[in-house]
Amino acid sequence: MGRKPRSFGLDFPAAANISNAINTAADCGFGFVSVPLAHPMLRRCANDQSVPVEKSKWMRTDLVLSANDWQVRVIPKISSWLELDSPNEGFRKRSEEVFHQELAFAHHLGIKAVLMDLRRRHNVNLARHLLSRLTSENSSYFRDEVWLQIPTTSRKMNTASCRNDVPEDDDEDKDDPWHWWDDLRLLCSSTMRIKVALEVTADLPSEEKLSRWYGEPIEVLVIPTSLFFTNKAGYPTLSKAHQRFIQKCAAREMTVLVTGGNRHASLRHYVQYMNHLFQSAELPPHIQCNLGFEDNLQVPLQPLADHLESFTYETFEKDPVKYTEYGNAVYQALLDRVPEAEIETNTQVIMVVGAGRGPLVTQTIHAAKKANRKIRVYAVEKNPNAVVTLMDLKKVSWGDIVKVVHCDMRKWKAPEKCDILVSELLGSFGDNELSPECLDGAQVFLKDDGISIPESYRSYVQPIMSMRLYNETRELKICDKPYYYKFEQTYVVAQTNSYWIAPRQQLFEFIHPNRSEVVDNTRYKRLKFVASEDSTLYGFTGYFDTTLYKDITLSIVPDTYSRGMFSWFPLYIPIMEPMSLKKGDPIELLFWRRRDQTKVWYEWCVQRPLTTGIHNINGRSSTIGL
Ligand SMILES: C[S@@+](CC[C@H](N)C(=O)[O-])C[C@H]1O[C@@H](n2cnc3c(N)ncnc32)[C@H](O)[C@@H]1O
């Protein structure tokens, strides 16, 4: 199920009396109004330069509303006639002055954000003025946001895609409004305060082009009333294509702004319909499980080098899927190893290595009961604090069937060999919590024909466009570190604001037990992707899946996601500078897993279409302690 929009706004092309507009909107369920900042009766004439901008009377007094109402109930619109990139110098200058005057007044009113139309591609001068307003160190405007209202298609783009009697125009994509936005945000890359108010148009572009918007910082969905049909009962409804697109947007927190005249019995029906549409959205399982945690960067855990805390264990243990599947895997392995004829005589030795606070031990005991097989369990854990819990569980619940061993599994001198080695040492990238290194140490006490659960795991990567994740990375406050440091980390993050530029590909695989003569967990791979659309590469998403036993698997890869599981979020693997891509561009990613005596680390770079530096060379910014 999706979530409700954050709030609803009603757009007024003109509002002589703002209080009335707010009341009208509130009566129909709208929390705020969007109105031109300039009073309709006091509009300045665009070309009349006889009155200096600072002397023109254009705005009503702020006393018409309380400060709180200005802040909460109004999103003002910057005058739509402004052309900061006009070739006419006089007009351009006047536009610049009015632009600053209006932003200054909005700031005076304490307003959080202003709406501004973006109607064409060339906006370099606008970008410069926006940036200087929003990022200048001396500016008091640093907390304001500008929401650029951008349509999903332009007239030219529509004509090109809907008619075959007009000549092919190579420049069709240039009039794709996404490009208007892409150019401007690259120019303004040093601020996070410019966001998108996406105006949903009657004609929609291709699915691929539309889905590109999922990677953009959409703050508002602008829905014209002209999009609505009337259903048999007389209520507004949208076309299936519009419903699909809007429901996909429901994965993220968003505001809805309704614009245009009332075409139905009440404006309230638009609010009700949109609420219903958002809430009835079927979100994909990988998003559904992550609601509430979206797009917050976290440093990956290091359960080998650090001791996990009680809170972390408790969070894991709530996962309804992971432990059930481990239980199923142990059950199946026990059935396979002990034939019916031996159930009284054959006691299987099971070692749960990295037992934490014991959930896998409990699952193992349940599985043995269900399978009607005899077992003896060793619970091996190196975290002394978790061992306290294990000892207690042994006393109050498990009994003598379990032996608790406080030890690093790589150094343990086991008293006997085991039939089944159970572990969960997996990170978001599979091997990034050093499961391979730990299990290589532990496999010495696995019988030659013994089973490792998991038996294998694989990492995957996928190129993504996510300005949000990139900016979050860039804005991290990390003292005393060089600029590259933040971009040479991997981050655990539930991602809802990303566009997948190309399908994911498998990176590395690890198989247990590892019976190779020379055990080598270093890896190197070159992957080639192809950009599905013009886009901007901001890095890669990393996932993993694991085969616990035979066909019992766990996965955080979106298309094979283990429904309901929330133990792992994907990784974000940044690149230092965003890279503009054309549809069909090859993207070549080179990835290394390296190690020395004390640590493991990843290095990566992109080689096509442009070459980046090698990130994290020699683990200079991030490593995983052995
Ligand atoms: C991701 S937690 C999983 C805990 C538990 N099995 C669960 O599923 O809730 C990994 C556990 O393995 C332990 N661990 C990691 N490396 C270890 C090692 N080399 N020897 C023993 N325990 C280890 C950590 O302390 C941590 O408790």
TrEMBL record:
Binding of S-adenosyl-L-methionine, residues: 313, 322-323, 381, 408-409
Family: Belongs to the class I-like SAM-binding methyltransferase superfamily.
Descriptive protein name: Protein arginine N-methyltransferase
GO process annotations (BP): methylation; regulation of DNA-templated transcription
Organism placement in taxonomy: Eukaryota, Metazoa, Ecdysozoa, Arthropoda, Hexapoda
Boundaries of every PRMT5 oligomerisation domain copy: 456-624
Catalytically driven reaction(s): L-arginyl-[protein] + 2 S-adenosyl-L-methionine = N(omega),N(omega)'-dimethyl-L-arginyl-[protein] + 2 S-adenosyl-L-homocysteine + 2 H(+)
Native source species: Lygus hesperus
A GO molecular-function descriptor: histone H4R3 methyltransferase activity
A GO-annotated cellular component: cytosol
